[in-house]
Specification:
Layout: E1 7-13, H1 17-28, E2 33-36, H2 43-47, E3 63-64, E4 67-68, H3 80-94, E5 98-99, E6 104-110, E7 113-118, E8 121-130, E9 137-138, E10 152-155, E11 169-173, H4 177-188, E12 193-196, E13 206-207, E14 210-211, H5 212-219, H6 253-258, E15 262-264, E16 267-271, E17 274-277, H7 281-306, E18 328-330, E19 336-341, E20 345-346, E21 375-377, H8 394-415, H9 418-426
Parallel strand pairs: 1-2, 1-8, 2-5, 8-21, 10-19, 11-12, 11-19, 12-15
Antiparallel strand pairs: 3-4, 6-7, 7-8, 9-20, 13-14, 16-17, 17-18
Helix pairs in contact: 1-8, 5-7
Keywords: Oxidoreductase
InterPro entries: Auxin_biosynth/cation_transpt, CHP04046_FMN-dependent, FAD/NAD-bd_sf
Protein name: MSMEG_0569 family flavin-dependent oxidoreductase
Length: 427
């Protein structure tokens, strides 16, 4: 077990793939550090994924530092147990100095030294990397408080399978990646599913003979950065819904509707045992399909410009349209006994007592480097590219952040900062 010291050159907050990637590069650079994890390493992958969970991107995109995908199915999609095995092998390689079951309760800066308060004690550091991601605490709307008491409520972080829910129909709220996949999981289990949609876009799984991710890699989409024109708002975008289940396929909510799934617009509240919806189901479906066709059109242009031999192009045409917009639903009359909240997470940065956040609560940074000297963020969606925060590019982001951190520490040593020398002596 890692023993807490009075001072470290660097501290990493968060023991997921981002935090361990940072530890990998800190160790390579010979920088004394510790990783603080409030639960256990990689706990979200183990404890907050449903039984049928699998990767949405192909296995070949698993490119953690010095730990590329090492299986025999690069174009497949690892299931939960395979993902955990892959991550456990990575954690063993990194062998990070981790303090598990330790919560950071306060982070402040005094002069050029950070003061970190934790449940295991207080210590100082010259640099801190916040690798806690945006997926901190499950987000459940206040409307959940007004649901009838006999309805079971489960967030996606706690959902495991259809069998854990009481018999009866299920309302899934949210049609992002998790919501759409869990709605499918319940649908395949023979449950009557009601799905409240949102503004999530969708993407084809395969198009013109290849996985769409492969095409987008060739097109260069994964090299686009948030610094490019019009990309600054991408960090707030919802991920496209599709699945890698059973070898990968599209998720088409209209097809689900033809098979008996009930679809609604965005939830706007709960009142008197009824769930209320905005009349925007058609708009949500149409917007998702525009993105779907737009991605395919981008691939079409790439194929045409390069004269690539491929199957002919196609355009998705809806085969189902909502006959009307349902704006309220009596939950008891519909036989709904449980609600799965696929409404995302909220970050928990309450312990950070430093001015690095914008009006939305998102940390302001340039490729992980904040305006507070020595403070960095890592593992966020679109930290720099589309692959940031994922197995694909979190390692590249970590390498950049640790490079900036190492440079700053070296500059401090060259300047002979008295406080730095004193702290090094204490440690």
């Amino acid at each position: 077990m890692t023993q807490l010291k009075s001072h470290y050159a660097a501290v990493v907050v968060g023991g997921g793939q981002a935090g361990l990637s940072a530890s990998h590069y800190l160790s390579r650079a010979g920088i004394d550090h510790v990783v603080i994890e409030k639960n256990t390493v990689m706990n979200k992958w183990r404890d907050e994924r449903w039984d049928a969970f699998c990767l949405v991107t192909p296995n070949w995109q698993c490119q953690l530092p010095d730990h590329p995908y090492d299986g025999d199915d690069p174009n497949g999609f690892m299931v939960k147990e395979e993902i955990l095995a892959y991550l456990n092998r990575f954690a063993a390689k990194v062998n990070a100095p981790v303090l598990e079951h330790t919560t950071v309760t306060a982070l402040e800066k005094r002069g050029d030294v950070f003061r970190i308060e934790t449940t295991a004690g207080t210590f100082t550091a010259h640099a801190v990397i916040l690798a806690t991601s945006l997926y901190g605490e499950p987000e459940i709307p206040r409307a959940g408080e007004r649901l009838p008491e006999d309805i079971v409520q489960v967030h996606t972080a706690a959902y495991r399978n259809a069998g854990q829910l009481p018999e009866g129909a299920v309302m899934v709220v949210g049609s992002g990646q998790s919501g759409a996949q869990i709605a499918e999981d319940l649908h395949l289990a023979g449950r009557k599913v009601h799905l409240a949609t949102g503004n999530a876009p969708r993407c084809a799984r395969f198009y013109r003979g290849r996985d769409v991710v492969d095409w987008l890699w060739d097109v260069g989409q994964y090299d686009i950065t948030v610094a490019d024109d019009g990309m600054g708002k991408k960090k707030h975008d919802t991920n496209h819904y599709l699945t890698g289940r059973d070898g990968g396929r599209d998720i088409d909510l209209r097809a689900f509707a033809r098979q008996g799934m009930a679809l609604y617009g965005r939830v706007r509240g709960v009142s008197g045992g009824k769930m209320l919806f905005e009349p925007n189901l058609k708009a949500n479906l149409d917007a998702a399909d525009r993105v779907y066709n737009g991605i395919n059109a981008l691939i079409d242009r790439h194929i045409a410009e390069r004269g690539i031999a491929a199957p002919p192009p196609s355009v998705y045409t809806p085969e189902w349209e909502p006959a009307h917009e349902t704006t309220e639903l009596d939950l008891e009359a519909a036989g709904i006994t449980s609600v799965v909240w696929a409404t995302g997470f909220r970050p928990n940065w309450a312990f950070v007592g430093l001015p690095i956040f914008d009006g939305t609560g998102y940390p302001v940074h340039r490729r992980g480097v904040t305006d507070v000297p020595g403070l960095y963020v890592l593992g966020l969606p679109w930290l720099w590219t589309w692959g940031s925060g994922r197995f694909l590019s979190v390692g590249r982001d970590a390498e950049h952040v640790v490079g900036a951190l190492a440079g700053a520490l070296a500059a401090g040593r060259r300047e002979g900062a008295g406080r730095f020398a004193e702290a090094e002596e204490v440690s």
